[in-house]
C-alpha cells in the first residue's frame, strides 16, 4: 500500500506521521514545493496550479490515495484535483476540525493563516458546524513560514501575537493550518490560562489519515501486529530528494526518517 501526501512544505508531516502510526507498513510519498511558499497570499488559480504540480508528481508514482495535507490547497484546488485524478486516484482533502471542536460547546478559537481567517470557506464551516457556539477567528501571520524554516524566534513571536488575540476564556483551539500541528505544544502553552482546565487542541492529521484508509478500504493497525516498516519517498518541486533536514527538527519528521527506501 502506498499513500501520497502533498502540501506546500512540511505541513504534510503531521498527517504522514499519523498514517505511519495507523499503518506502519504503508509506503509514504511526500510531495511538496517549498520554494513556492507561502501559498496563502496567492490567487486561487495560482494555488490550484501549484497544487496540481505537486499532485501530478505524486501521481506518477501510482499511489493508492492522495492526501491534500494543506488547508489552502483544499480550499482552492480540491475540485480541480479530484476532476483530474479521480476515480483512479482517491483524493482526500483537509478540513479544519471545527465540527469536533464545537461539539465541546466552546468558546473556541480558530487559528489560521490570514488568507483563511474570515474567508467564506471558513465562515461556512463555522455556520454549518458551530452554530450557537462562541467562535473567535485568530489570524496567525508569519507562523506557517516560521514553522517551515524551524525559526524558533519567529515561531515564538507569531504564537505570542496570536495568543494575545485569543480570548482568555477560550477552552478549545482549532489548528486551521497543517503547519501549526508541528508546534501544538507551544500553542497550548501560550494559550493555557493558570488554574483553568487544560486547553483542548484540535488538528486534522489523524482524521485525514483515517479517512484516506477508509477511501481505499484498508484497516488501520495490521492484525498480525509485526510488519515490515514501509518506505519513504520525498519529492521536492517535482524531483526526488532526501527528507529536508528542517523536518528532523520536529518529532513527526523524526518518526518518518528511520525507514528503508520505498519499495516499487
TrEMBL record:
Pfam families: Asp_Glu_race. PROSITE patterns: ASP_GLU_RACEMASE_1. This is Aspartate/glutamate racemase family protein. It comes from Streptomyces niphimycinicus.
Amino acid at each position: 500500500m502506498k499513500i501520497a501526501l502533498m502540501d506546500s512544505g512540511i505541513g504534510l508531516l503531521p498527517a504522514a506521521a499519523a498514517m505511519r502510526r495507523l499503518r506502519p507498513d504503508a509506503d509514504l510519498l511526500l510531495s511538496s514545493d517549498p520554494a513556492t511558499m507561502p501559498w496563502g497570499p496567492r490567487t486561487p488559480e495560482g494555488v490550484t496550479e501549484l497544487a496540481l504540480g505537486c499532485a501530478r508528481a505524486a501521481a506518477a508514482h501510482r499511489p493508492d490515495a492522495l492526501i491534500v495535507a494543506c488547508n489552502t490547497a483544499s480550499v482552492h484546488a480540491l475540485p480541480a484535483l479530484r476532476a483530474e485524478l479521480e476515480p483512479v486516484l482517491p483524493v482526500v482533502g483537509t478540513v479544519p476540525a471545527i465540527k469536533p471542536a464545537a461539539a465541546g460547546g466552546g468558546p473556541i478559537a480558530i487559528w489560521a493563516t490570514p488568507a483563511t481567517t474570515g474567508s467564506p470557506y471558513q465562515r461556512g464551516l463555522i455556520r454549518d458546524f458551530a452554530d450557537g457556539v462562541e467562535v473567535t477567528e485568530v489570524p496567525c501571520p508569519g507562523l506557517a513560514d516560521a514553522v517551515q524554516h524551524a525559526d524558533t524566534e519567529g515561531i515564538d513571536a507569531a504564537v505570542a501575537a496570536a495568543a494575545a488575540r485569543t480570548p482568555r476564556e477560550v477552552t478549545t483551539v482549532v489548528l486551521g493550518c497543517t503547519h501549526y500541528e508541528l508546534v501544538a505544544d507551544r500553542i497550548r502553552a501560550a494559550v493555557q490560562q493558570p488554574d483553568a482546565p487544560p486547553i483542548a487542541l484540535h488538528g486534522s492529521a489523524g482524521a485525514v489519515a483515517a479517512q484516506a484508509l477508509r477511501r481505499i478500504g484498508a484497516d488501520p493497525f495490521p492484525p498480525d501486529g509485526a510488519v515490515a516498516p514501509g518506505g519513504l519517498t520525498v519529492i521536492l518541486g517535482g524531483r526526488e530528494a532526501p527528507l529536508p533536514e528542517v523536518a528532523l527538527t520536529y518529532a513527526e519528521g523524526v518518526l518518518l526518517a528511520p525507514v528503508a527506501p520505498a519499495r516499487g
